[in-house]
Amino acid sequence: MSIFDLSGRVAIITGGNGGIGLGIAQALALSGCAVSIWGRNEEKNKAAAATMARYSGEVDTRICDVTDPASVKEAMSGVLEVFGRVDGCFANAGIGGGGRKAFIDRSEEEWRKMFATNLDGVFHVFQAAARHMTERAENGDSYGRLVATSSLASLFGTARNEHYAGTKAALNALCRALAVELARYNVTANAILPGWIRSDMTAGIMANDKFVANVMPRIPVRRFGEPSDFGGIAVYLMSKASSYHTADCFVIDGGYTAF
C-alpha cells in the first residue's frame, strides 16, 4: 500500500466547489479519499461532484454557510451520518478583499463581513472537526488533519486589502496554536499560502494587462498557478506521510516570494 493511499479516509473541503478547493477535492478523491464538498451554491456543488464521478473516492455535497455555526453543525452531522468519521478538514471557503478601497474608507460592515467568513468561518469548521477528532482519539482511533487556506497576503504588505490580510495572518497563527494543542490526539494543523492562482476570485485582476505585465516577471516559473497545483500538497497533508509535519505554512507560489 502506498504511503499516500487515502482509502478509508474522509475529508471535508469547505468552498470545495470551485478554484483551489475543487483542486484539493479532486486530488483527494483520486487518491481514494471520500470527500464532502461544502458550499453555499447547490448547483456548483453538484457540478463539482460530477467532475469526480469516476474517481475511487466517494463524493458527498453539503449546503453550508460557514459564517453560521448552526449551518456548520448541520453539515458536520450529515457527513458523520453518511461516512461515520471525518479524518481531514480543509477550511478553504473565503472571500477576497478586492483591493479597491483605501483603509481609511473601509466601512465597519466590510471589515466585519471579511472576518465573519475568512476567520470566524474557519473557527466554526475547525472547532466542529476538532471536537469529533479528539473524541475519536480518546476512544482509541487517533487521526486528524486540519488545513486552512491562507494567503501570501499574510506575509506581504497588501495595500487596500488590510482586512483580508488580517484574516489570513490570523489563520497562520491559529494553525500553529492548534498544532501544539492537538498534537497529543495525533491531529496536525497546517496552513497553505497560495500565490497568484487562477480562480473566480482572481479572474478580474488577471484580465488586467497592466497587472499581468507587472506580476508575471516576478514569478520564476512564468505562469499563474492552477487549482490542480494544490492537489499534491493536499494528498500529502491528508496522508500518513505528513504525520510528523505540523504547525507549518506551505507557500505554493511558483517561487514568487523568493524573487
Describe it for me?
This protein is α/β, with parallel strands linked by helices. It has one domain (10-258): 3-Layer(aba) Sandwich (Rossmann fold), CATH 3.40.50.720. The chain is built from 8 helices and 7 strands; from the N terminus they run E-H-E-H-E-H-E-H-E-H-E-H-H-H-E. The protein has a 7-stranded parallel sheet, with helices on both faces. Strand 4 (88-91), helix 4 and strand 5 form a beta-alpha-beta unit. Helix 1 (19-30) packs across helix 8, helix 3 (69-83) runs parallel beside helix 4 and helix 4 (108-138) runs parallel beside helix 5 (162-182). The termini are far apart.
Report the portion of residues in β strands.
5-15%
Major β-sheet annotation? 7 strands, parallel
Helix-strand makeup class: alpha/beta
- What spatial order of strands do you see in the largest sheet? 3-2-1-4-5-6-7
Specify Rg, calculated over alpha carbons. 18 Å
Q: CA-to-CA gap between the ends?
A: 39 Å
User: Which of globular, elongated, flat, extended, rod-shaped describes the shape?
Assistant: globular
Query: What's the oligomerization state?
Result: single chain
Mean pLDDT: 97
List the domain count as a whole number.
Answer: 1
Instruction: Name the helix and strand elements from N-terminus to C-terminus, one letter apiece.
Output: EHEHEHEHEHEHHHE
- Show unreliable segments: none
CATH class: Alpha Beta
Quick one: how many beta strands?
7
CATH superfamily grouping: NAD(P)-binding Rossmann-like Domain
Helix count? 8
CATH architecture: 3-Layer(aba) Sandwich
The percent range for helix content is: 40-55%
